[in-house]
Each structure stands twice: as C-alpha cells, then as structure tokens.
C-alpha cells in the first residue's frame, strides 16, 4: 500500500533553514506528481510546492514561499525534499507530503490522492 513518511521538521529561529524529506513507498515514485502543503490550527490548508511529471514536468510554488523554498526529488531514493530558507514565524505549520498518480496531477492544496501524516515546523 502507498506510504508517505515525512521527516526533518523541528524548531528553528527566524531566518534559519530546514530541509524536509518525504520517503515514498508502495507506488511507482518516479511517475507520480509530488508536493507539499501546510496547515496551521485555525487556518486553511495552503499549497507550498509541487513537482509535476509527464507531460509538463513543471514546478509550482505558492506565492508566500517563492524564492525561499526549493522542492526537489531523488527518484533513485524514492524521496521528495523541501529545502526551506529564510524561515519566518508565519511558516510555522504542520507540513504534509502528498502524491498524485500521473492521470490526476494538478493538486496544490486540496485534492491530493495520497497524503502523509505530516511533520511540524515551528519558527520563532
């Protein structure tokens, strides 16, 4: 069965950096669109970044993280990454890894087919 396991969250001071990882299993990782979204208590879910596969192979970032976050993947390791630089207190949230099969790609915040359990990021 499909599993997405996030790691790398933690507490960091404003201006600092963190790298999140998401290990995927149970599906053909390289063909799936992958992404990250975040959610804080009392706030709506927010798409953070996404990597799309065939045919566009586009990369998408939410406006609030453009220029500060970088999403990448290592298909040989079945792992998705999110490098977060210049972190701000408003980046504090639970960060979720998500995946869509190729025929369902396009999700940003809602609509992902598979979602991990999340990893907490706190910026103070």
Key descriptive features of the protein:
11 strands, mainly beta, 7-stranded mixed β-sheet, 4-stranded antiparallel β-sheet, single chain, 124 residues, globular, 48% strand
Please give a quick description of this structure.
The chain is an all-beta fold and 124 residues long.
Q: How many β-strand stretches?
A: 11
* Alpha carbon gap, first and last residue: 37 Å
User: Helix/strand/pairing class, anyone?
Assistant: mainly beta
What would you call the shape? globular
Q: What order do the SSEs take from the amino end to the carboxyl end, as H and E?
A: EEEEEEEEEEE
**Rg for CA atoms:** 13 Å
The largest sheet is: 7 strands, mixed
| Low-pLDDT ranges | none
Helix content class: under 10%
Number of helices: 0
As a percent range, the share of strand residues is over 45%
Would you tell me the overall average pLDDT? 96
Overview of the molecule:
The chain is mainly β. It is 0% helix and 48% strand. The strands form two sheets. Strands 2, 4, 5, 6, 9, 10 and 11 form a seven-stranded mixed beta sheet that branches. Strands 1-3-8-7 form a four-stranded antiparallel beta sheet, with no helix packed on it. Strand 7 and strand 8 (79-84) form a beta hairpin. The chain is globular and about 40 Å long. The model has no long low-confidence stretch (mean pLDDT 96).
């Amino acid at each position: 069965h499909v599993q997405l396991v996030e790691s790398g969250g933690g507490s960091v001071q404003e201006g600092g950096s963190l790298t999140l990882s998401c290990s995927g299993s149970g599906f053909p990782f390289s063909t799936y669109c992958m992404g990250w979204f975040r959610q804080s208590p009392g706030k709506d879910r927010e798409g953070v970044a996404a990597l799309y596969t065939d045919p566009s192979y586009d990369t998408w970032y939410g406006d609030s993280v453009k220029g500060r976050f970088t999403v990448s993947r290592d298909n040989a390791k079945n792992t998705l990454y999110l490098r977060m630089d210049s972190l701000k207190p408003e980046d504090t949230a639970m960060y979720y890894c998500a995946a869509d099969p190729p025929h369902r790609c396009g999700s940003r915040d809602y609509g992902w087919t598979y979602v991990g359990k999340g990893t907490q990021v706190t910026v103070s």
